[in-house]
């Protein structure tokens, strides 16, 4: 029995009490630490909740600010797009005006060139480099210069339309991206913690290489806006230029056309006056020819009237030459017959007025032919200037485009 009481495998009662005290102390200590942990956890949870809510609230505010910023720039882009589209449409109408003006120059140029060509058919002294020809050459040069100017302006307008469309394309692409970005941010703004189907995204924190800074984002849109403004201002300046060119060229064409028409009217009046004077001279020549022809007829009759006395005198002399022997006497009768015959013959030979009259008639005939030829020259000139050219020029119509 004593051996059992002294068994070393058994604990002492004091150890039992000590163990119980230690268990209690350890448990209480663990409980205390656990309570502290729970308190700290609730504090941390509360802190995290507040921080999360604050952070999420800040994100929501920044998201709303970003949406407003996108809306602002989207509105700016919309305004610039509307302006550039409007200016491009107006510029297209100006382009059509230029094309019509360019087309309208062709007929006056063809008419001027035809007039120059027709007037090459003038003949004789009328084929001169007169005021009409000078003004026609100037008109052709003015029209060719205007055609070249309108052509260059049309090319400039086409280039401006291309620039406008390029600016419009950039605005549309920027607007399209901003619409997509605004749609995405609108979706993000609508999300809450209770929104269904929200998920974890493993790569959400990954930054791709094509991210740009906010400054670059603003600069990009600013460049598109400034380019649109620049092209719009260029379009406004070009429209004013086109208006001025169309007005000035139309005035120049009208002025030169009237100068040519005035020169034609003056020239036709001069040619008609010259033709009238030639016709007056021709009438005078024709009267003189008639008078000379009467004069020649009278001279010829006067010569013919002397044939009887000559024949009588010659017949008498011939007969008296047959007197016989001593009767063949150079008496006063024979002497008078000889004198009569010599006098008549001498008077007939002195009728050189007939030859002179015939020479004058030939000269008058040549003058008649010359005047008739010159009148035909004037008639040809009048037909060319008054009929071919002036009537053709009546079809020329210079409009304001």
From TrEMBL:
User: Localized where?
Assistant: Cytoplasm, Cytoskeleton, Cilium axoneme; Cytoplasm, Cytoskeleton, Flagellum axoneme
BP term (GO), one: cilium assembly
Q: Which residue stretches, if any, does this entry annotate as coiled coil? A: 354-381
Which InterPro entries does the UniProt record give? Answer: Tektin-like, Tektins
Lineage, top-rank taxon, reads Eukaryota
Query: Which Pfam families did the record assign?
Result: Tektin
- Does the keyword Coiled coil belong to this entry? yes
Keywords of the record, alphabetical order, are: Cell projection, Cilium, Coiled coil, Cytoplasm, Cytoskeleton, Flagellum
Predominantly, its location class is cytoplasm
Q: What GO cellular component entries does it have?
A: axoneme; microtubule cytoskeleton; nucleus
Instruction: Please give the family membership noted in the entry.
Output: Belongs to the tektin family.
Indicate the quaternary assembly: Microtubule inner protein component of sperm flagellar doublet microtubules.
The function of this protein is:
Microtubule inner protein (MIP) part of the dynein-decorated doublet microtubules (DMTs) in cilia and flagellar axoneme. Forms filamentous polymers in the walls of ciliary and flagellar microtubules.
- Its name, as the record gives it, is Tektin
Gene source species: Oxylabes madagascariensis (white-throated Oxylabes)
Q: What lineage is on file? A: Eukaryota, Metazoa, Chordata, Craniata, Vertebrata
This protein's gene is called Tekt1
């Amino acid at each position: 029995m004593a051996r059992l009481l002294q068994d070393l495998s058994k604990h002492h009662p004091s150890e039992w009490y000590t163990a119980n005290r230690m268990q209690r102390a350890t448990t209480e200590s663990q409980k205390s630490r656990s309570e502290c942990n729970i308190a700290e956890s609730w504090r941390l949870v509360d802190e995290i909740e507040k921080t999360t809510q604050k952070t999420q609230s800040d994100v929501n505010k920044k998201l709303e600010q970003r949406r407003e910023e996108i809306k602002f720039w989207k509105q700016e882009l919309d305004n610039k797009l509307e302006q550039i589209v409007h200016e491009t449409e107006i510029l297209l109408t100006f382009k059509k005006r230029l094309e019509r003006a360019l087309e309208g120059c062709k007929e006056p140029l063809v008419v001027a060139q035809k007039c120059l060509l027709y007037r090459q058919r003038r003949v004789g002294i009328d084929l001169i480099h007169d005021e009409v020809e000078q003004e026609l050459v100037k008109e052709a040069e003015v029209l060719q210069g205007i055609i070249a100017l309108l052509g260059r302006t049309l090319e400039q307008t086409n280039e401006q339309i291309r620039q406008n469309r390029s600016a419009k394309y950039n605005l549309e692409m920027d607007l399209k991206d901003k619409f997509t970005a605004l749609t995405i941010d609108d979706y993000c703004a609508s999300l809450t913690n209770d929104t269904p189907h929200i998920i974890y995204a493993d790569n959400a924190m990954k930054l791709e290489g094509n991210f740009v800074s906010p400054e670059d984002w603003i600069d990009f849109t600013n460049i598109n806006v400034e380019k649109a403004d620049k092209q719009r201002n260029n379009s406004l300046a070009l429209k004013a230029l086109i208006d001025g060119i169309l007005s000035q060229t139309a005035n120049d064409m009208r002025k030169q056309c009237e100068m040519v028409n005035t020169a034609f009217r003056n020239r036709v009046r001069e040619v008609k006056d010259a033709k009238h004077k030639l016709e007056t001279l021709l009438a005078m020549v024709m009267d003189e020819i008639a008078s000379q022809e009467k004069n020649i007829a009278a001279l010829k009759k006067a010569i013919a009237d002397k044939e009887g006395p000559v024949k009588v005198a010659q017949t008498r002399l011939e007969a008296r030459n047959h007197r016989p022997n001593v009767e063949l006497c150079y008496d006063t009768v024979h002497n008078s017959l000889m004198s009569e015959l010599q006098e008549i013959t001498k008077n007939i030979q002195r009728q050189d007025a007939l030859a002179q009259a015939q020479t004058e008639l030939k000269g008058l005939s040549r003058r008649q032919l010359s005047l008739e030829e010159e009148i035909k020259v004037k008639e040809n000139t009048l037909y060319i200037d008054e009929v071919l050219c002036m009537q053709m020029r009546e079809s020329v119509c210079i409009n304001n485009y």
